[in-house]
Structures are given as structure tokens and as C-alpha cells.
Amino acid sequence: MCRHQNHHLSALLPVEEEEEKKGKHAGGLSTRGRGERSSNGSGDEGKRGWGSRVAHTKNHRRRSFSTKIPSGLKSLVERQIPDEISRLKALKQNYGNEKVGEVTVNMIMGGMRGILGLLYETSLLDANDGIRFRGLTIPELQEKLPGKRGQEPIPEALLFLLLTKKVPTEHEVEDLRVDLMGRAEKFANECSKDKNKKNVFDVLRALPEETHPMTQLSTACLAMQNDSQFSKMYASGTMKKTEYWKYIYEDALDLIAKLPVVAAFIYKRSCVKEAARKSSDVPTVDASLDLAANFSQMMGFPSNECKELMRLYYTIHADHEGGNVSAHATHLVGSALSDPYLSFSAGLNGLAGPLHGLANQEVLKWLKEVQHALKGDYSTETVKKFVENTLKSGRVVPGYGHAVLRRTDPRYECQREFALKYMRDDELFQLVSRLYEIVPDVLKATGKVQNPWPNVDAHSGVLLQHFGIKEENFYTVMFGVSRSIGCLSQLILSRAHGYPIERPKSVTSACLEEKFK
Fold first, then answer.
1. Average pLDDT over residues 340-354
2. 194 has catalytic annotation
3. Which CATH code for domain 138-517?
4. Tens-place pLDDT, residues 214-223
5. Among the options 402, 459, 466, 497, which is catalytic?
6. Which of 126, 254, 409, 457 is catalytic?
7. Would residue 457 show up in a list of annotated catalytic residues for this protein?
8. Catalytic residue among 60, 286, 356, 426
């Protein structure tokens, strides 16, 4: 398969074909929609788009209905749609009956693992290079993405890349940052100032404080669904199929902007224990920051180092192909034309499952067990013996191994580099480093492990603990906020390219038995 892009085949483009029958082309979208201003046609959307960037930054105000004046990113996505639809249609026409793999009973009974059956453009997992975002590895992202306010990329630059396949310019990243932060500030201000209108924060305040943070985040997504522009337009009966993506885009960017505000509220209301840190107020958005830095600051961690950590966390958790539970759930529910609020809430519910989003908590729990048992003696012999005893007891070493990767997870490596820069003397980091030296060889010696190398979860909890984010039941919320970048990017593209509703065929075990008699 293609190393850089996910070109898996699917039953594709019912929208495009239906529009052709009507004498239209689904990809031939004008840049002038209902009430939209025409593009200046210069190709430099960053210079104008929807008004003076400087004035917008000063006033932090956003248009009330953003589909009327397309931003640079949105108009670029629109210009790319015709070529993308033509390319996908040609792929289907030329190779639609070609086989891309086999399906075995083991695959069917093993959670569909390894079955090739999903078209997902934004990222592809490579067994040797790890996750590639539109063809770029994590080190390449760190090198090439513009808009940095430190050493790590900002989420806005990654979002632009995922939606367009294009590394943005500094100007394009800044325009998108201003847009998203304007949405976030508008949302927070409206919810904090209008006391007579119930909002998502009132819903969260009505929940018991001990409600799990992921339950609260998923509930919040559903509570904000009334804001969906796509749902309102679909109910009106006036929206063309070729316009679906425009309103999905607006909902998706609104949700990406809102989620850090909601998550920070959940953190300060329900997770922290110290009275001085607790708060039930709507967090204050600093629109001069990027999404990740503002999230860190709203949570109560304003240091530049913690902001850098949050940027790194956003990047490495943003996307991981389409087959994982949270991405697939979002994609599946969205294929029924559920709006982004409904779709991503489904993804969050999948992420909350212990087998998906709780892995870094399991790692941290085990590391603390090791720390307690060894009492600071992290010599090679002592640690090796503890790991061997863990395996002999029937337990696994959490944070090691991966279903696809056959090397150390690049997401682990970039976290290690971050730790070496900012927290070299941290005791838990020193333990993690010692395990990195020892565990792979111990696992190899068992002869039962295909990939004995550490994955992303082997390190992330240690970083968060060092910077004071010690409330472990909140970690999956941070994962969810980050994952919105990837899941919602693909949701936009799925509607733009006319993907059909997902409907695989199931079989009973009796059918399988009968087939092979």
C-alpha cells in the first residue's frame, strides 16, 4: 500500500454520481454560496479572507454566521474538492473490482484486525515509520510545520495540513489560529455573560461533581448539539448535498474551539482537590494564544514549558488512522449524516473504554508500583528481575508492544526528547529510561512478542505528572480534546468527497461453520 497516503478503496461517491445525473458536478462548487462574498481569486487567502487579521486580533470578534465569508482554509478546501472527487472517481472506475486483501475467520473473530476496508485520508500508520500525517512523520512535522511559538508545532498548523495535504504558510496558520481562538472566546463570553440563557456549563454544573470527566465531556458534546449549523440546515430542507461539507466544517471548527474551554472547566470543577484551584466559572480565553497554550493556561498551568508540553501532546494524539475505536466511531456515526457534535460524542465514548484511552493511566499505575517496590534502586539487575517477575505472574508490561508498529513508537521518542530537555532529573523519568534499556530484551527473550518496543503510552503520564497535572482520570479528556483534530478533519473530508453511509456485512458463527463443512 501507499507509504504516504491512505488510498484504501471503498464504495464511493454516491453524491457525485447523483449530481452528475442532474447535469451537475459535485466537485464544481462555486466560491460564492448563499450570501457568500466572492473570493478575491488571488490565491493568497491569508492576505484577506474575511477581513483584516490585525483588526480581528485586536477586537477578537467573529462573524455571526461564518459560512457567509469563507476563511482562507475553507476556500482552499473548496478549491481542492473537484480534483479530489475526480481522482477518487477514477480510482473507483479503474480499480473498483480489484482485490486489496483477504479476509480470514481469524480476522472476523478477532475484532476485524487487519481487514482493509476503510477509506481514511488524514493519517496512515506505517510499521516502520510510525504514524504519518498526510505523509509526514512526527519528526518531519516538528521540522516543517510553521506557526511555532516555541519548539513544538501548534494544533492549528496540523489541522490545516490534515484538511488540505499542504504545509501551510505562517500567514495561513495565523489566520486559522485567529479564527479558532475567536470562536473559543465568543463561546466562552456568551456562556459567562448571558445568565438568563441555559448553556453547556449549566448542564455540567447539574451533574454530580464526581461524575467521570469523560462522561462529562461526552455529555457536553451532546448538550452543545443545539448549536449545530449542519443540523439546522438539514432540517430546513434547503441544503444541497454538495453543501453538506460547508456546514460540517463550521460545526467541526466550532467544536474544536469549544472543547478545550469545556475540558478546562471540567478539570477545575471536578478533578482538582485543592480549594484554591477549584472553580465553577467559565474559563477565560486568551485569544492571543494558540489552542494548546490556551488550554494549558485555562487549566491553571501558564508556564511556557507546560504550554510546550500541551502542544506536543496535541500533536502526537491528534490522529492515528481510521480503524481505532474513537476515529472509527466518529467516522461511522458521521456517515449517517449525524452532525459533528453527535459523531464526536460517539468517538469520545469509545475513547473512554479501558482498552482504548486508559492505557497511559495503566502505565502510570504500574510505574508507581515499580517505584514503590524498588525504593529507588533502579539498577539493571533489580529492574530486570522485577520485569521478569511481572511476566511470570501472568501480567503484561504496560506501555510496550503495538498491533502495527515494529519499532519504538516515534511518539514515545519525541516525548523522551522533551523529557531530556525539561525534566532530565525527574525520578519517574529516570525509571522510564531504565525500563527502555531493559524491557525490550526481556520481552524478546520470551519469544512471544512481535514488537517489544515502547509505545506512546509508556511515557505520556510521566510528563503530565512532572508538570503538576496529577489527576489521572482527566488524562483521557486531554486525549479526546487532541483527537478532535484528526477525527473532525476526516469528518469534513468525508462529506466533501461524498462518502456513503458505512454498512459492512455481518455473519453468524453458524454461517461460518456451515461454509467450511
1. 97
2. no
3. 1.10.580.10
4. 999 999 999 9
5. 402
6. 457
7. yes
8. 356
